[in-house]
Amino acid sequence: MNATAGPRRLGFGVFTFVLIVVLTGLGLWQLQRRAEKHALIAALSQRLAAAPQPLPAAAQWNAMEPTTDEFRRVTLKAAYMQLPDAMVYSAGSAVRDDISGAGTWAFIPARLASGETVVINAGFIANTMQDRGVEDRAVKALVRQREAHRQARLRDDAVPPLDP
Fold first, then answer.
1. Which residues contact 122 (CB under 8 A, 6 or more apart)?
2. Separation CA 38–CA 32 (nearest Å)
3. How far apart are CA 34 and CA 141, in angstroms?
4. Mean pLDDT for the stretch of residues 71-91
5. Integer CA distances (angstroms), 160 to 56, 119, 137, 141, in order
6. CB-facing half-sphere around the CA of 57: CA atoms within 13 A
7. Positive or negative, the Cα torsion across 71, 73, 76, 81?
8. How far apart are CA 122 and CA 46, in angstroms?
9. I need a labelling partner for 153 at 20 to 30 A (CA). Which of 10, 20, 43, 56 fits?
10. Separation in Å, CA 86 to CA 3, 103, 119
11. Residue 138: beta bridge partners?
12. 137-141 contacts: CB < 8 A, separation 24 or more?
């Protein structure tokens, strides 16, 4: 039995070393995520406290940077489009006091007067308030600007023109 004790100890030592390396890596990754989360919260707090500015012209959208423009408050005039909206389920938020239970976030496509399509976060809807059968199709909104995924743009020819 002593002949197999050496390889067993070596195998257990290698396994223990690998496990320590993996768990240390995971711990460092969690610390990095924590630092990124705190930086995001600080950026959100700063940008949401700033006064809203007009939405930049569409020609400037590709030059926007997430580090300076994401979550920036903007004002715009748009009309809701007769297209499907996106209802994203959320179990609530441990960070925000106004969202304490389950519900959905409503994202509604809208067309600017210049013809571009934007998606407006219409807010959180608690599960008891999901009847949205009647809604006003015109909106003047104060929104938070989010970096657009340039690959996922809607085609302009697929969107009906804005009613005057």
1. 85, 106, 107, 108
2. 10
3. 33
4. 86
5. 22, 15, 14, 20
6. 2
7. positive
8. 22
9. 43
10. 66, 13, 10
11. 79
12. 137/79, 137/80, 137/82, 138/79, 138/80, 139/77, 139/78, 139/79, 139/80, 139/110, 140/75, 140/76, 140/77, 141/75, 141/76, 141/77, 141/78, 141/110
Handedness of CA 142, 143, 144, 150 (dihedral sign): negative
Gap between the Cα atoms of 20 and 10, Å rounded: 15
| Closest to 123 in 3D by CA, of 139, 162, 46 | 139
**Which residue type occupies 128?**
T
Q: What is the pLDDT of residues 15-32, one digit of tens each?
A: 999 999 999 999 999 999
Residue 158 has pLDDT above 70, yes or no: no
CB 145 within 8 A of CB 56: no
**Cα atoms found within 13 Å of the Cα of residue 28, Cβ hemisphere only:** 6
d(CA 159, CA 58): 16
pLDDT at 143 over 90: no
